[in-house]
Amino acid sequence: MYWNLSSIHFPKQEFREPTAEVVRWTYVCENSSQLCNRRLIKFNQEAQTLQTCQMSCGIPPLWPKPTGQIKFLNRKAISFSKDSIKFRSLKTENFSVKRLLIGATDIFLSNLKSSSESRGAGEGNVDIFVTIIGGTTATALRLDVDESYKLEITSNITNTKVSIKSATLFGARHALETLSQLIWFDDSLGLYKIVTGIKFEDIPAFKYRGIMLDTGSNFISVDGIKRTLNAMAMNKLNTLHWHITNELSFPFCYENCEYAKYGAASSNKIYKTEEITEIMDYATMRGIRVVLEFNNNLDDLGVLLSDIFDRRIQFEKSSHFINSSDSLEHIKINGIHSLVPEMIHLGGVGVDHFLDENNFYSIEDPILSGYSAHEYVSDFQSATPKSDLLEKLKVSKVVLWPETLEQFKNFSKTSDKDMLIVHVSSESSERSQDKFFKAGYKVIISHSDVWFLNRLLPWSAVYAHRPWQNYSNAQTDKILGAEVCLWTENIDENSLDARLWPNAAAFAEVVWSNFAETRVGFATDRLDVQRQRMLRNGIMAAPIQPQWCSLNPGECS
C-alpha cells in the first residue's frame, strides 16, 4: 500500500507485510519543479521511496494545507522505531480536558503502532510535548472555540522534539492529525521517518466545516457513521449534520420505540439513544460536533403514516401532533434533549409539498405560514408547555433550511437573528443567500449544484467553488461556514465511502485553508496522497486519477 501510516483516530487494523520484490525504481527531487521524478535505479544505487522523496521535496503533502507560512529549519528526516515515540508532557489545568487529550494521544499512538512493524532501532527517539495554553475548559466544540495550533519539530543527533501548543483540546487534536501526516513508514528501510526542522501555525478559515449525512432515505449503520467520522477527522472537518429522519423513514428509537416500530425500515435499522450518544462521544474525541436534524413540520412522520391511516386522518393526526401537549414534537424534545449540546437543525425543507389536491393544508394556514421566525420557534416551544425549548435543549443556535423562513412574511424583521442560522441550499447562480445577508442572518452554504455530492460531480468542481470570493467583508462575516450534503436516495452503506471521498476531502481544504488559488493542478498530487492515507485506514475513497499518475507526480496535473 502506498501510505503506511494510520491516522490518529482509527481503531487497530491488521497490517500485512508486502511480499519481497526487486526494487527497480527510485525517486529524485527536481529542485526547479519541486516534484519527485521516477527513475530506473542504477547498479548499487540506494533506492528512495516516493513518500520519502515527497516529504523532503518542496512543501510536504499536508491536507488540508496549513494556513500559516511553513518555515523549514532544515530539510532532514530521521528514522525511528515505533516503540521510541513517546508523549513526554500533556500540560492543561483542567481535568476533563486532560482526560480527552489523553484519549486523543492514545488513539494517535495505537494507530501508529498498529500500522507497520519496524525492522531495526532507527536513529533516535521522538518526544512529543503538548501544551494547552490559557486555562480553557472547553470539552465540547462550539462555534466560539479556538481550533488553532502551533507545531514545531526540531532535532539533535539522538532526539527529535515535537512541540504542540494550542488554546484548546480541539486545536491540539488537529495538530496531532497534522503530525501524523509528517510521519511515514519507509518500506526500503523498514522504519518510520519523521520530518525534522519545521514549524508553522495553523487556523481554520471557517468555524463550521461540515458534512450532511442523510440516514432517512437509506439506513447507514453505526459503524458506517463512525467510519465517516474517522475520515472527517483526517480532513479536519468539524461538523456532522445528521439528517436522521425524513418522510420515508423514522429510525429514531425513543423509550419503547413506538414510532420507530412503524417508521423504521426494519427492527435492526434503528438508532437507539445510547447509540446516538456513543456516536457523539466518538465524534467529540475526533474534534467533531454532531448536529441532529429533526424537521419541525409534517416531514418526519405525517407522510409516513399514510401507510397506516387514510390521507385525511394522516393530516389530521399530524396536526394533532403539532399542536397538542403530547405531540410528536414533545416526544422529540424529551427524547433528544440530552443529545443536543449547542445546536439543533429543525429542517423545514419542502414545506409546500403538504399541499394536496384536497387542500387539507393551505399555504395561508397559520400552521405553515404567516409567522415571524420567533413565532415559528415559539410554536415548537409550545409543544412542551412547562419548559422553554432552548432552556430544555440547552441550545443557543437553531438551524433552518431557507424554505422555512421564506414562508414567513416577516422573516427579515425578527429579533432572533443571533439564534437562527439559515442553511442555504439553492444553486449557486441564484445567490439566494444575499437576501439573508441583507436581513442580518448568519448562514451556512451548501450550494446544491456543486456541494450536493450525490450529483456525482468531479472533485475538481467541488474544490474550485469559492462562493464568497466576490462578497464584501460585511457579507463574508455573515458566513459561519459551509457544508457538503449527501442525500442517500440511491446510496447505501456499500457506496457511502466512494460517494463522500475524496470529494469531501477536496471541500475540506476549501473551508479550512480558503486559498484564492482554485486551479486543481496545484492540489491533485496532495489530494492523491491524502486519498492513499484514507485507503490505508479503511476508507474506500474513489480514485482521482490513473495509478500511473500517482506514481509519476506532476505528469497528469
Automatic annotation (TrEMBL):
Alphabetized GO MF terms: beta-N-acetylglucosaminidase activity
Beta-hexosaminidase eukaryotic type N-terminal domain ranges (all copies): 62-182
One Pfam family here: Glycohydro_20b2
GO BP terms: carbohydrate metabolic process; glycosaminoglycan metabolic process
Protein EC: 3.2.1.52
One Gene Ontology cellular component: plasma membrane
Keyword field contains Hydrolase: yes
Alphabetized UniProt keyword annotations: Glycoprotein, Glycosidase, Hydrolase
Catalysed reactions listed for this entry: Hydrolysis of terminal non-reducing N-acetyl-D-hexosamine residues in N-acetyl-beta-D-hexosaminides
Residue ranges of domain Glycoside hydrolase family 20 catalytic in the record: 206-295, 395-514
Family listed: Belongs to the glycosyl hydrolase 20 family.
Protein name: beta-N-acetylhexosaminidase
Lineage, top ranks: Eukaryota, Metazoa, Ecdysozoa, Arthropoda, Hexapoda
